[in-house]
């Protein structure tokens, strides 16, 4: 087997430029978060501030107990959510991928319909509070992200296209049940797509703040993104109403720009380490060929 | 076959475990939650009991009044609530009433209150305002009419607010009660005192009340101070200064021009078609071209005070502080502005509001339709208009813990800051009789005396349309379309970035296409009907 | 009963699908009664069921503006351009990422590519502002000023924004899609490439005749799903990245921003449900049509 171990330098160059364009804004966010507020007003954003100022982080540290608890909430929700979601989603996708499964078209349509039509905020709220009674629990944060048509269809497509039907057939002949086929043949063969969908699910759980806004009144259960977001939302709301309500008494102070950016850093930070961790499932070799061989 | 059974059993048990784990999880959370909110149990008890009728004053059943209002979260909320309840119990045992404070974050206010109303959650006192959807709340049946309750249980409200209910009426019934406070505002300019002194500027020209007379000062700064923007904004002459000084606004683009028109005239015109609008737009265009105005003025969230603080700005157009002698063109030190700017600022009022319908609906308390005992809610609201102690607890917290009195003013306890005191907010304007409040350290101790005096001036100058309420429903879609047409031009015109010669006609044409004539005709129709009914 | 017998025969597959069916039912189908709200005048006292029917009243505001067609055109055009550019670039990016042999480099590039997706649109808005701020932005201060060019009032000049929004959208989403395609490419059986190399096929040839055809099903699915949302604009992008500047409306107003403003003006939430329903119906009809065509050409690639 002859493998070319050298990558085309143009590809490297292109990807380097692209990666930089993705990374530079992050650098900028970080630098703004440590720029002195007066410098920001005078000179605008810069890639290397004249005066470093960690005030924004000190300000956040002040609230560290709440932030730590919110991290706990978000991590718990994300971990449980991702595991359960991957199980449910891939199991359903597997059924949908099997051509001999009757009504697979009807069921696909059942899934697809939910991607376009939704009842809106109020019915959603009524179902969760009146029927499921999950308001002010972690369940309210977990359930909404458990399943989504998009993920089901992506996984289904992978199952149909990268796993030859013959493999399933031969497993059957060997006496393996559907469950066994699914758990010990299909899943190991689909690690790249599971990692991809897992990543997407992690990101959507991690970034979700709206569910907290709607269902959580107990501030001990606020998710990290909501905790950070609401400061910004409160400020921008107060700003927008300042002249409507009360400019005289409502002393509206915007959070410093650096604090905004520091919040973004705090929120994104841990996510940056998730992908490298998942990347081990992107390794070649765990492919059909390897299994067959 | 065995295998099949085995693995399906495995799968089922996995699912079972997950389900159990999840439900268990929720169970735990629920108990935690209930433990931390001991009051939740109380609430269900109270609401399941038959509502007491407020009429027989002998012995009322205990009732918990839930107050919903927008506020940033306060970490010591529970202790303030307890203190309020202890006080209510001691001072008004005959009312046998407790309160539950249910503040909602500003950013979540719109969504959450809509959902609470639509899902018929039980609550009692509710902050509302025209800019927070008061009309829709009334229209959708979320609020109770208050006329009878007010007559029976609101003597102290009536004592100060009697004359100001008309604007909050919808379909002849009252749904909101205005906070007793200043009845209007004043617009003018703030100037950096150091620069005024440095160039020994003559401010007497501003006695005219015309913002045009600011030009010479701006020019001086432009010529001599290259690093300073003469006029920093996001607030412009074409905002409140224009509106309040020129018009009685009705809705959308419909307004009555009160500048140089016969005081008995009720002709509805287009807000953007008055000569004054054109004058001010031209002025701003000229100033923008000359570089007198900051170019980033339209950035949302831009804080002009920060620019002044950083020494990058000289003048600012905006709402004035209400001081002892409010008079057009009078120069006085502005204490709050000086704090915000971190340097000495002076203020010069250029316009003083007349008594306007809109102002009276800008801050109100209402009672929710889901209240189990509206009478008790009204009794509590009445207390906020009469009882300084209760008001102080709500606004400033517990004495010694959240504030200390220093020379009759509210100060932070020794060694505490606004961040760590546990209870600090500025929402006096949301409820009750503001004039009963303490002032904060650093404020004019006579603040509320000044307000009283200012109110006399304002209420002696009622707008022509005071008391008239426009019903937007017949032209709702036109209003949306007009607003859409405005968006593309209005900000550009008021900030001077767009040339009015070219763009004002474009705006008016777009408004016409969007149905502005229909809105103006509808406004005229409603105004005429109102005049006929009220003998104006 | 034949239905039951069939289901019983495939009960394993049914059982695997049941948790998903239930979750979708709870999350999506139970609240579906809200669709009726689009045709009702919601009254809190009467409740969702008891409120009065108003027919198409709630839909009128969508067409009240004489800009309605412009707004619809913007929504569709932006989405179409985004879809096209995003797909081409994402596939290309995935192929290039797959070519990198050094593990460390490969990890680095992949991680960098999805980073932008983690940033919320509010922050993206501020970053764009950092570049375009009329007084202090990088472009005016560091590029145009040294070149002795007039500074540009970016937030008052609608003409630039189709390009700016396309760049921002591509930057934010391309890495995300590329990862999906990369997962598909990794799944391709190496034997195909071995065979091609033995035949002496060039890299380009391998790409066009193996990689792209084999990931076509994924491209089709992603495209089909995107078509369903062609009437729904990314509100965050069009609202936050433009800093909600009214002067840019001429080129940046889309359905979602229009509806948002209407809500601000009237406070009537009924408007949102009718707009949402209209967007769904259009997307639905489009997807059904496209899916029908796909089905004619290759049955296994269709959605249903």
UniProtKB/TrEMBL annotation, chain A:
Membrane topology: Multi-pass membrane protein
SUPFAM superfamilies, per database record: MetI-like (SSF161098)
GO cellular component: plasma membrane
Cellular compartments annotated: Cell membrane
Transmembrane segments: 12-34, 70-94, 106-126, 138-159, 180-206, 259-278
Stretches assigned to the ABC transmembrane type-1 domain: 71-267
Pfam family, one: BPD_transp_1
Keyword terms of this UniProt record: Cell membrane, Membrane, Transmembrane, Transmembrane helix, Transport
GO biological process, one term: transmembrane transport
Stated family: Belongs to the binding-protein-dependent transport system permease family.
Protein name per Swiss-Prot or TrEMBL: Putative aldouronate transport system permease protein
Species: Paenibacillus catalpae
UniProtKB/TrEMBL annotation, chain B:
One Gene Ontology biological process: intracellular signal transduction
InterPro entries: DUF3502, PLipase_C_Pinositol-sp_Y
Gene3D superfamilies per the UniProt record, alphabetical: Periplasmic binding protein-like II
Highest taxon listed in the record's lineage: Bacteria
One MF annotation (Gene Ontology) recorded for this entry: phosphatidylinositol-4,5-bisphosphate phospholipase C activity
Record protein name field: Putative aldouronate transport system substrate-binding protein
Signal peptide positions (record): 1-31
PI-PLC Y-box domain sequence ranges: 413-476
Keyword annotations from UniProtKB, A to Z: Signal
Location of the region described as Disordered in the Swiss-Prot/TrEMBL record: 32-57
Annotated Pfam families: DUF3502
The organism of origin for this protein: Paenibacillus catalpae
Automatic annotation (TrEMBL), chain C:
Organism superkingdom: Bacteria
Record's bilayer topology term: Multi-pass membrane protein
Record family assignment: Belongs to the binding-protein-dependent transport system permease family.
GO biological process, one term: transmembrane transport
Record keywords: Cell membrane, Membrane, Transmembrane, Transmembrane helix, Transport
Lineage, opening ranks: Bacteria, Bacillati, Bacillota, Bacilli, Bacillales
Stated name of the protein: Putative aldouronate transport system permease protein
Compartments where located: Cell membrane
Membrane listed as a keyword: yes
Listed transmembrane segments: 12-39, 76-96, 108-132, 160-188, 209-231, 271-294
Main location: membrane
PROSITE patterns the record matches: ABC_TM1 (PS50928)
GO cellular component, one term: plasma membrane
């Amino acid at each position: 087997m002859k493998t070319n171990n050298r990558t085309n330098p143009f590809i490297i160059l292109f990807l380097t430029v692209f990666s930089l364009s993705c990374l530079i804004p992050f650098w900028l966010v970080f630098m703004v978060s440590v720029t002195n507020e007066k410098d920001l007003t005078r000179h605008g954003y810069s890639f290397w501030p004249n005066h470093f100022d960690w005030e924004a982080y000190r300000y956040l540290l002040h609230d560290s107990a709440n932030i730590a608890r919110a991290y706990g909430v978000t991590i718990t929700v994300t971990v449980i959510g991702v595991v359960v979601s991957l199980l449910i989603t891939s199991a359903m996708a597997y059924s949908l991928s099997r051509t001999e499964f009757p009504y697979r078209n009807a069921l696909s349509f059942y899934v697809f319909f939910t991607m376009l039509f939704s009842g809106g905020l109020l019915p959603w709220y009524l179902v969760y509070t009146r029927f499921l009674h999950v308001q002010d629990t972690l369940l309210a944060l977990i359930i909404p992200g458990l399943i989504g048509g998009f993920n089901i269809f992506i996984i289904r497509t992978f199952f149909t296209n990268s796993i030859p039907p013959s493999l399933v057939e031969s497993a059957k002949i060997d006496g393996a049940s559907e469950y066994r086929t699914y758990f010990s043949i299909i899943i190991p063969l689909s690690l790249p797509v599971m990692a991809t969908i897992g990543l997407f699910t992690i990101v959507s759980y991690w970034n979700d703040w709206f569910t907290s806004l709607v269902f959580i009144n107990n501030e001990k259960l606020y998710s990290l993104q909501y905790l950070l977001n609401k400061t910004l939302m409160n400020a921008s709301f107060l700003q927008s109403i300042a002249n409507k309500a009360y400019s005289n008494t409502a002393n509206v102070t915007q959070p410093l720009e650096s604090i905004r950016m520091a919040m973004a850093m705090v929120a994104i930070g841990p996510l940056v380490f998730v992908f490298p961790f998942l990347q081990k499932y992107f390794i070649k070799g765990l492919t059909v060929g390897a299994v067959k061989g | 076959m065995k295998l099949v059974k085995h693995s399906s059993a495995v799968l089922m048990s996995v699912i079972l475990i997950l389900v159990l784990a999840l439900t268990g999880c929720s169970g735990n959370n629920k108990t935690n939650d209930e433990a931390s909110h001991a009051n939740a149990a109380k609430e269900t008890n109270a609401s399941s009991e038959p509502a007491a009728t407020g009429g027989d004053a002998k012995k009322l059943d205990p009732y918990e009044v839930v107050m919903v209002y927008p506020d940033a979260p306060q970490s010591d909320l529970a202790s303030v609530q307890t203190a309020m309840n202890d006080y209510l119990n001691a001072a008004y045992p005959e009312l046998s009433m407790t309160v539950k404070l249910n503040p909602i974050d500003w950013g979540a206010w719109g969504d959450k209150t809509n959902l609470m109303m639509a899902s018929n959650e039980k609550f009692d006192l509710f902050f509302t305002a025209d800019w927070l959807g008061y009309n829709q709340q009334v229209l959708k049946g979320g609020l109770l009419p208050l006329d009878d309750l007010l007559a029976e249980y609101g003597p102290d409200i009536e004592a100060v607010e009697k004359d100001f209910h008309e604007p909050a009426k919808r379909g002849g019934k009252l749904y909101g009660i205005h906070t007793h406070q200043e009845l209007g505002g004043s617009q003018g300019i703030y100037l950096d005192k150091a620069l005024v002194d440095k160039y020994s500027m003559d401010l007497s020209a501003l006695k005219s009340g015309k913002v045009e007379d600011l030009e010479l000062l701006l020019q001086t700064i432009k010529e001599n101070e290259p690093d300073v923007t003469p006029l920093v904004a996001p607030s412009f002459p074409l905002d409140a200064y224009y509106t309040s000084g020129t018009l009685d606004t009705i809705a959308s683009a419909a307004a009555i021009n009160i500048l140089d028109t016969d005081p008995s005239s009720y002709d509805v015109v287009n807000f953007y078609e008055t000569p004054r609008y054109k004058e001010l737009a031209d002025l701003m265009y000229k100033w923008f071209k000359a570089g007198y105005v900051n170019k980033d003025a339209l950035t949302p969230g831009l804080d002009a005070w920060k620019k002044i603080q950083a020494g990058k700005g000289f003048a600012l157009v905006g709402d004035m502080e209400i001081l002892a002698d409010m008079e057009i063109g009078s120069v006085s030190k502005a204490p709050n502005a000086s704090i915000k700017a971190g340097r000495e600022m002076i203020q010069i009022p250029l316009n003083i509001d007349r008594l306007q319908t809109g102002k009276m609906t800008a801050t109100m308390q209402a009672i929710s339709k889901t209240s189990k005992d509206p009478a008790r809610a009204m009794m509590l609201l009445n207390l906020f208009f009469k009882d300084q102690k209760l008001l102080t607890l709500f606004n400033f917290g517990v004495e010694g813990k959240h504030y200390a009195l220093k020379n009759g003013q509210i100060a932070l306890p020794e060694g505490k800051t606004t961040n760590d005191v546990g209870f600090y907010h500025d929402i006096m304007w949301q409820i009750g009789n503001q004039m009963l409040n303490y002032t904060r350290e650093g404020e004019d101790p006579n603040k509320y005396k000044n307000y009283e005096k200012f109110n006399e001036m304002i209420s002696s100058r009622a707008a022509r349309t005071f008391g008239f309420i426009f019903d937007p429903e017949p032209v709702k879609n036109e209003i949306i379309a007009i607003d859409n047409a405005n968006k593309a031009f209005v900000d550009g015109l008021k900030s001077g970035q767009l040339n009015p010669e070219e763009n004002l006609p474009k705006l008016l044409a777009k408004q016409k296409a969007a149905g502005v004539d229909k809105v103006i005709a509808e406004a005229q129709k409603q105004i005429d009907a109102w005049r006929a009914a009220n003998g104006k | 009963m034949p239905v039951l017998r069939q289901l019983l025969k495939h009960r394993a597959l049914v059982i695997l699908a049941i948790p998903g069916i239930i979750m979708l039912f709870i999350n999506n189908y139970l609240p579906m009664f809200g669709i009726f709200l689009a045709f009702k005048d919601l009254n809190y006292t009467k409740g969702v069921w008891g409120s009065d029917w108003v027919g198409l009243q709630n839909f009128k505001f969508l067409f009240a503006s004489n800009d309605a067609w412009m707004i619809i055109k913007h929504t569709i055009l932006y989405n179409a351009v985004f879809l096209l550019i995003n797909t081409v670039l994402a596939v290309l990016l995935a192929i290039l990422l797959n070519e990198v042999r050094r593990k460390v480099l490969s990890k680095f590039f992949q991680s960098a590519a999805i980073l932008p997706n983690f940033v919320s649109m509010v922050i993206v808005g501020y970053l764009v502002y950092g570049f375009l701020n009329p007084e202090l932005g990088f472009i005016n201060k560091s590029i145009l000023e040294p070149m002795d060019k007039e500074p540009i009032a970016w937030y008052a000049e609608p003409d630039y924004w189709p390009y700016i929004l396309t760049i921002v959208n591509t930057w934010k989403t391309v890495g995300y899609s590329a990862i999906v395609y990369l997962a598909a490419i990794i799944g391709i059986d190496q034997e195909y490439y071995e065979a091609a190399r033995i035949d002496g096929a060039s890299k380009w040839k391998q790409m066009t005749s193996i990689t792209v055809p084999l990931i076509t099903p994924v491209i089709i699915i992603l495209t089909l799903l995107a078509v369903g949302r062609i009437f729904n604009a990314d509100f965050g992008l069009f609202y936050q990245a433009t800093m909600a500047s009214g002067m840019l409306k001429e080129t940046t107003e889309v359905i979602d921003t229009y509806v948002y403003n209407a809500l601000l003006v009237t406070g009537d939430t009924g408007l949102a449900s009718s707009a949402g329903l209209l967007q769904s119906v259009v997307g639905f009809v489009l997807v059904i049509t496209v899916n029908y065509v796909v089905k004619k050409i290759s049955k296994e690639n269709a959605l249903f």
